[in-house]
Design a protein that fits this description.
The complex is a heterodimer of chains A (392) and B (387). The longest helix of chain A is centred in the C-terminal third of the chain and has 42 residues, at 289-330. In chain A, helix 4 links the parallel strand 2 (84-87) and strand 3 (116-120). Chain A has three domains: 11-176, Rossmann fold; 182-219; 240-389, Zinc Finger, Delta Prime, domain 3 (Up-down Bundle). A five-stranded parallel sheet of chain A has the order 2-3-4-1-5, with helices on one face. With 392 residues, chain A is α/β, with parallel strands linked by helices. Chain A is built from 15 helices and five strands. With 387 residues, chain B is α+β, with helices and mostly antiparallel strands. Chain B folds into three domains: 2-121, DNA Polymerase III, subunit A, domain 2 (DNA Polymerase III, Chain A, domain 2); 133-256, Roll (DNA Polymerase III, Chain A, domain 2), CATH 3.10.150.10; 259-380, DNA Polymerase III, Chain A, domain 2 (Roll), CATH 3.10.150. Helix content of chain B is 18%, strand content 41%. A nine-stranded antiparallel sheet of chain B has the order 6-2-3-4-18-17-16-10-14. Chain B has a nine-stranded antiparallel sheet with strand order 15-11-12-13-27-26-25-19-23. The chains are: A alpha/beta (392), B alpha+beta (387). Chains A and B meet through helix 3, helix 4, helix 11 and helix 12 of A and helix 3 of B.
């Protein structure tokens, strides 16, 4: 199975990356670049594309790199290749100190003699809460003048100056992923995760092309129930009291979702690290273990905050999808609904709203997302939004 | 590979030998493992010997010791725990055995059971390149110690954190600089490849540690991988201990042209006396304020001050050929160079007070600025002082 197979509906990007990897193997300089920027909406497969590209650059198949079978491909995908580093912000933002370490690492020669690849996910998170690009500025020089065999692959939602530092963007070759189509996502869920086709279609449509979200919706009933509850909100809030209660349940549902996601991953990581230090049976911690465990715990805590925020954002995206459907119906457009199974509720709301009022609600959701992204207390932001969404 | 790992490995090894090997290999264990498997030590038992390895994606350490291996095989165990245990075992032979996912370790009446870590998650260890040549451990350690003092510590200038090693058929040259000083040492060595002409940038911190740990071995083998297939690592081996480290890529400053070939004045001073005087006078200097040195025939006057409040001066005897000169240095950097020199008398060569000074050993034949075997040169930038 080739490394490109998990990248669905992105034929153009695959062609570009594949060609670059081929050129890199052939020693040609024309087709290859040392700094790349992969953009695309969340869930479209930015990191997947970056890792596939890294595997192809190190692949032992020189003619059609990215075989997915050789030792190099296997170790890159398993995260055990010394020549590939994937970094993501531990918390809501990248911190400066790990970036310095990354710059030092970028100067290493590739141990396999070919390439060293450094993948940075979510460059939009290199901008701190103070709106300054402190973390990105540390990387700037290393990305501008990478050593001959170091390849940077940066991932961002878009090329806008809010998502990537403009001076970094201008040094990178850009490839843009599109939102994968419903059918492409559904097909992947069936093929890779063994999901039933009708469930796969529902999940692909409901997630609006977010592959990770689609997989969760398809495989986790609790996630589906929570989504249904979120989508019941627009038609059930007439008064202020109801609205405030709905806001609270929306925020707490996101919290539950985040906790579920974090708990499983955190526990697995902690267990693996404890085992690696030989601490499984309540044994006294050997030298150095306590520090490593403390670090992991701190990182998990920071990540927990981010996961919670992301979960709430996904719920807000679901709401946006619903209002989008309402607008589609209100305008009489002949487009497929994201929430086909809620067609009745959508039509009901469309009958009682004007396109202007629906757009006002869409704006309210957008304002809420922006507020949360800039560190406003989630409950306050959601309350403000829900009051604007009232139908009464 | 994983099925092989599950076979019943059985090894008997002397306690001291095992403890020493494990402790040495454990030094290459990452403090913050980038993946859990890297917190493990890999033990590979083959007839007559056992090999213990650690890897942190940058540096790998492998040590081989003689052992009675009944059943060969490989196993990955928690490195820190194994190091803690072997350190405290009684002085008796140690029996290591693997049963299923457990490692048993018995020594005298002590018995430990450890869990194995999954072997298939462990990365492939870098292969030691073929030997390029060798040098005596003591000589190697001394030379490395002399140049690493000048290496930079700022990670945002990665090339400066390296020592450049240059290999030719006659000489092994080491150079390091942090832009304020440059240290160069040449030594003769025993190359094993004809027509060798190669260079490598080795992380200074790793090189210093490796050289120190090999200082007592008779022969250190240096192995640089050449060609395109894997010129990213360098290996050092001595007494069954092998270390490989990633090299740095990048352009090292063209330092040879920086070394002045002529001097307008040359001073000779007793090294120890000068070092002590500079240290004393520097006590009053604030951080990063320079010490000013005035060389006249028969005397070196050292001055430092912080603001208008504190000042220190001291004079030490010294000879001078050529023009009198007044020059200021960062006292810490000056002491670093003089100490690394390891020579009773220092030779300081100047061209002008705004130009770098060249410090070298004042030997009987006084090599001056042509470096040759055993020669050490420390080029130090002066600090511009107002007034």
């Amino acid at each position: 199975m080739s490394v490109w197979d998990d990248l669905v509906g992105q034929d153009e990007v695959v062609a570009v990356l594949r060609e670059a990897a081929r050129a890199a193997h052939a020693g040609a300089t024309a087709g290859m670049t040392n700094a790349w920027l992969i953009t695309g909406p969340p869930g479209s497969g930015r990191s997947t594309a970056a890792v596939a590209f890294a595997a192809a650059l190190l692949c032992e198949d020189l003619v059609d790199p990215g075989c997915g079978r050789c030792e190099a491909c296997r170790s890159v995908r398993a995260g055990s290749s010394p020549d590939v580093t994937v970094v993501s912000p531990a918390g809501a933002y990248y911190r400066v100190e790990p970036m310095r370490e990354l710059v030092a690492r970028a100067a290493w020669a590739p141990s396999g003699g070919r390439w060293q690849v450094i993948v940075c996910e979510d460059t939009d998170r290199m901008r701190g809460p103070d709106l300054r690009w402190a973390a990105a500025n540390v990387l700037l020089k290393a990305v501008e003048e990478p050593t001959a065999r170091t390849v940077w692959v940066l991932c961002a939602p878009s090329t806008s100056s809010e998502d990537v530092l403009p001076t970094i963007r201008s040094r990178c070759r850009h490839v843009g992923l599109r939102t994968p189509s419903t059918s492409a996502v559904a097909e992947l869920l069936v093929r890779r995760d063994g999901v039933d086709p009708s469930m796969a279609t529902f999940a692909a449509r409901a997630s609006q092309g977010h592959i990770g979200r689609a997989r969760r919706l398809a495989t986790d009933e609790q996630a589906r129930i929570r989504r249904r509850d979120v989508l019941a909100l627009p038609t059930s809030i007439a008064g202020v009291g109801e609205a405030i209660l709905a806001a609270e349940s929306l925020v707490s549902a996101a919290k539950v979702e985040a906790t579920e996601l974090s708990e499983v991953r955190d526990a697995a990581e902690t267990l693996a690290l404890r085992q690696a230090f030989g601490m499984e049976e309540r044994r006294r911690a050997p030298t150095g273990a306590a520090g490593a465990l403390r670090d992991l715990e701190a990182e998990q805590k920071r990540r927990g905050t981010r996961v919670q925020r992301d979960a709430l954002d996904l719920a807000l995206l679901d709401l946006l999808g619903f209002y989008r459907d309402v607008l589609v119906v209100a305008l009489g457009a002949d487009v497929e609904l994201v929430n086909a199974e809620l067609a009745d509720a959508v039509r009901r709301l469309a009958r009682t709203s004007t396109p202007e009022s629906v757009l006002g609600r869409v704006d309210a959701v957008g304002a809420c997302r922006a507020a949360i992204a800039s560190n406003v207390a989630p409950l306050l932001a959601v309350e403000a939004m829900v009051l604007a969404l009232r139908t009464g | 590979m994983s099925t092989k790992g599950r076979c019943a490995v059985k090894i008997r090894v002397e306690r001291d030998v095992l403890a020493e090997a494990v402790a040495w290999a454990a030094r290459s264990l990452p403090h913050r493992p980038p993946m859990p498997a890297l917190a493990g030590l890999l033990l590979v038992g083959e007839p007559g010997r056992v090999e213990i390895s650690a890897f942190d994606f940058e540096v790998s350490g492998r040590v081989e010791v003689a052992a009675d291996v009944v059943d060969p095989g490989r196993v990955l165990v928690s490195g820190r725990l194994l190091a803690d245990i072997t350190r405290s075992l009684p002085a008796k032979p140690v029996d290591l055995g693997v049963e299923g996912t457990k490692v048993t370790l018995s020594c005298g009446s002590a018995r430990f059971v450890l869990a194995t870590l999954p072997l298939d998650e462990y990365p492939t260890l870098p292969v030691m390149p073929t030997s390029s040549g060798s040098v005596a451990g003591e000589v190697f350690a001394a030379a490395v110690g002399q140049v690493v003092v000048a290496a930079g510590r700022d990670d945002t200038l990665p090339v400066m954190t390296a020592v450049r090693l240059e290999f030719t058929e006659d000489l092994l040259t080491m150079a390091a600089t942090d832009r304020y000083r440059l240290a160069v040492r040449e030594l003769s060595w025993n190359p094993e490849q004809a027509g060798l002409e190669a260079a490598a940038l080795v992380p200074a911190r790793t090189l210093a540690e490796v050289a120190k740990s090999l200082a007592t071995t008779e022969k250190v083998t240096v192995a640089l991988s050449l060609g395109t297939a894997g010129d990213g690592i360098i290996g050092f081996e001595g007494a069954g201990r092998r270390t490989t480290t990633r090299l740095l890529d990048g352009e090292f400053p063209k330092y040879r042209s920086l070394l002045p070939t002529e001097a307008s004045s040359v001073a000779r001073v007793d090294t120890q006396v000068l070092v002590e005087a500079v240290r004393r006078v520097a006590l009053v200097a604030e951080r990063n304020t320079p010490a000013r040195l005035t060389f006249t025939d028969g005397e070196v006057r050292i001055e430092a001050r912080s603001g208008d409040d504190a000042a220190g001066t001291e004079s030490v005897p010294g000879s001078l050929e050529g023009d009198d000169i007044e020059i200021a240095f960062n006292p810490g950097y000056l002491v670093d160079g003089l100490t690394a020199l390891a020579s009773p008398v220092s030779r300081l060569a100047f061209t002008a007070s705004g130009k770098p000074a060249l410090i070298s050993a004042a030997g009987a034949d006084d090599h001056g600025s042509t470096i040759g075997d055993g020669q050490y040169q420390y080029l130090l930038m002066p600090v511009r002082v107002s007034v």
